[in-house]
Prior knowledge:
- Helices cover 38% and strands 15% of the residues.
- The strands form two sheets. The protein has a five-stranded parallel beta sheet with strand order 3-2-1-4-5, sandwiched between helices. A two-stranded antiparallel ribbon has the order 6-7.
- The two termini are 39 Å apart.
- The chain has helices at residues 25-33, 48-56, 85-101, 138-152, 155-170, 173-183, 197-200; strands at residues 14-18, 37-41, 60-62, 74-79, 104-107, 120-124, 127-131.
- It is globular, with a radius of gyration of 21 Å.
- By secondary structure, it is α/β, with parallel strands linked by helices.
- It has two domains: 14-117, NAD(P)-binding Rossmann-like Domain (Rossmann fold, 3-Layer(aba) Sandwich); 121-187, no CATH class.
Amino acid sequence: MRYLPLDLDVQGREALFLGGSAELVSKIDRLLDAGAIVTVIAEGPLDAAIEERAARGVITLLRRAFTFADLERKAIVFQAPFTTPEDEALARRLDAHARAHGLLFCAVDRPEACTFINSAVVQASGLTMTFNTGGTSPGTARRIREDLERLFGDPRFARYLDLLRALRASLPRGERAARLAEAVKGFAVEARLVFPAWFEAGDAPPPASKPAGDP
C-alpha cells in the first residue's frame, strides 16, 4: 500500500485516543505540540505519563468505555495496540466508520486497520523530517529517528541554518535562489548502515525471547 505524505494542521481541532498504554504518549505529545485538543478514553491500565498530563489539565481523561458518539467533532483518532479480541473487532468497526465518514483513524502497529500511517518525526535544529516503513517495522523507524536526532542535533547544524536564514532574509526575492544554492555547496550528509548480526549472517530474525520467569 502506498501513502501520500502530508502535514496536517490540527490547531484547535479535537483528537481522540482510545486506551492508556505507553505507546500513545509520544503521539499525544505530538498532537499537543501541534495545538490539538486531546481526549483520552480508557477503562483499563493507564500509563503514568498519561495520568500526569491529565493531572496537569493538558488533556481530558475519561475513565469509561468508548461509544461511537465520542467520535463527534473529532478530527483524528488513535487506538492503542490490541490486547484482546474485542480491541481488534473495535478497530475493524472504527476503520470502516472512518472510511465512510472521512475520519483519520490509526490503530497503532496495525496498518491494515488504519486510514493513515503515523510517520516517525525528527525535529532537530529547526529541521523537520517525517518517514515511515509503511507499518512494516515501527522499531526500525524509531531507531532511524533516534540516530537522525543525534546527527542533526549537532549545534553546528543549527548555527548553519541560522546563517542561511539570515542570508535569505537579507536578499531580494530575485537573488535568493542563486545565492542560496551557492551557499549550500559543500554541505553533505555522510552515513553508513549497520545491521544486526543475524542479518549479516544471512539468517532469519531470531524468535522473541521469553520474559524472565516464564517456563
